[in-house]
Design goal:
Blueprint lengths: L1 H35 L8 H11 L5 H20 L5 H20 L10 H21 L7 H11 L4 H20 L1 H26 L1 E8 L3 H10 L5 E6 L6 E10 H14 L4 E7 L10
Helix pairs in contact: 1-4, 1-5, 2-3, 2-7, 3-4, 3-6, 5-8, 7-8, 9-10
């Protein structure tokens, strides 16, 4: 029975995992197809390159993306073997297929709005949101990330710098292919992209770090361990002014749990002193591995 329950739990976890990957990928695809491709914004790896290549060839950006991504997947299999992530393969194929499918579901002959800056914001934000959600699940959208994985394995080249320079080269090419206005929009999008991805990931990872100075740590620790299912560390301290012995409880919680703990401490020990800090990077059991 336990083996059956374990199998069902594994299936459930995998279903949720791939559902999140699918939703994240579709958010990315909507941003690229609805806002990036129609405006010829040329930033962000494979899709940015696809915009430029599609302008000088008879095929659409979606088809170019499909061809490049499939070629990179083959290279990934050849050079990375078992190190090549299953999630990245799934997302890369889904991205390519979904972009091609959108051409039949919702063909576009021009930009969605008459405001290029508004389109640019959505062309940056939606893919950034999708990418951040993918990074949270240990996946990526493939494309230039596959090149980065190959470079990391076989060379000592600074990958981040290499990919950033390639993105700049694509934006420069957009200046010659589409004109200076589109090129400048592409440079702006390139600048915003990394900033938005970092901020979205930071927001998703945001947790609260507590230092609770109190007289009786027992009920607070029991609440943290039994109700919030988190760990805590208790230290002994002494008040600098009163010289009274105090207990200091140190713990890290998700945002919702932080509100619960704050309210609980205020209800049972109103004079407790709480230092609450925001942090986006906690490494350890229950957080990042």
């Amino acid at each position: 029975m336990s083996d059956k329950n374990s199998l069902l739990q594994t299936i459930k976890n995998n279903f949720i995992e791939y559902l999140i990957l699918t939703v994240s990928t579709l958010i990315l695809v909507l941003g690229v197809y609805l806002f990036k491709f129609p405006n010829n914004f040329s930033f962000g790896g494979v899709t940015g390159l696809a915009v430029v290549l599609a302008e000088v060839s008879p095929i659409s950006p979606s088809t170019v993306t499909l061809i490049i991504n499939m070629s990179l997947l083959v290279l990934g299999f050849i050079f990375l073997g078992k190190d090549f992530g299953v999630k990245t393969i799934y997302v890369s194929i889904l991205t390519s297929v979904a972009l091609s499918a959108m051409e039949f579901i919702y063909p576009m002959s021009g930009p969605l709005t008459s405001e290029p800056l508004l389109d640019l914001l959505f062309a940056v934000f939606l893919p950034a949101l999708g990418s951040a959600m993918l990074f949270q699940r240990g996946a990526s959208s493939g494309g230039t990330d596959i090149i980065a994985m190959i470079m990391k394995k076989y060379t000592s080249i600074n990958i981040g710098t290499g990919l950033f320079l390639s993105d700049i080269a694509i934006a420069v090419a957009a200046c010659f292919v589409f004109g200076m206005e589109i090129g400048l929009f592409s440079f702006l999008g390139l600048s915003l992209k990394s900033l938005v991805v970092d901020k979205v990931i930071e927001s998703m990872n945001l947790c609260k770090y507590f230092n609770v100075v109190c007289d009786d740590p027992k009920p607070i620790c029991e609440y943290i361990t039994n109700e919030l299912h988190r760990g805590a560390t208790v230290c002994r301290g002494e008040g600098a002014y009163s010289n009274d012995t105090k207990s200091v409880i140190i713990t890290a919680l998700k945002r919702k749990q932080a509100v619960q703990l704050r309210n609980f401490v205020k209800s049972i020990e109103p004079n407790a002193f709480m230092l609450i800090s925001s942090t986006s990077e906690i490494v350890g059991n229950g957080f990042q591995s």
